[in-house]
Design brief:
This protein is an alpha+beta fold. It is 31% helix and 25% strand. It is globular and about 65 Å long. The protein starts with 7 loop residues before the first helix and ends with a helix.
Length: 215
Amino acid sequence: LAEHGYSAPRARAYLDDLESRLRAVAGVLSVTRTSTPPLGGARITASLEIEGRKRDVHIHQVDPAYLQTMEIPLLRGRGLMAGDTAGVVVSESLARKRWPNQDPLGQPFQVGQPTPLTVVGIAGNARSLALQDPDAMELYRLASAAESPGMAMMVRTSVPSETVVAAVGAAAKGIDPNLTPRILLLKDQFQQRILDVEQGALAASLLGVIALIVA
């Protein structure tokens, strides 16, 4: 929405309306918002010093329904709640590395923001932005109203996802006919990511064979 000149209040109103319309689409189980769609290009990271070296932490600005919609298990504590601006849920990998000999729950945590947050929950490792890193560290915090223009909607369905694409597009166009939503299927994104890895491996193998022949 930011690319289309939406202000924060206008974007918030648009997303509220869109969420309501999407929930009414047959086959839609749940809807959530995020600043960093899985397997997408958007990334928000902050640097954290762990074990004497700098490590990136992936920051997800989400709404309270995100973990449930994405089926990311909550291992301990609780999830985010509406108005929970001081709470943060961290991934198991982040909790293990940041507090190796302490209970992470209730710990103050400051990364990428001026004031400390409080760890209220520990979630399973999702690696939604770093498939190749089994120990990718992630945290989830509530998105503020000011961040609405940069948010994306995630939709979980009980039917094949491609069967609701037209209805999802119609719901968005019904709010603003001048805006054409970019609708992506996660399974297609995943297959493309796997293809990119396979092509990279093939190129490396060919170079290796050529080097061997030359040697």
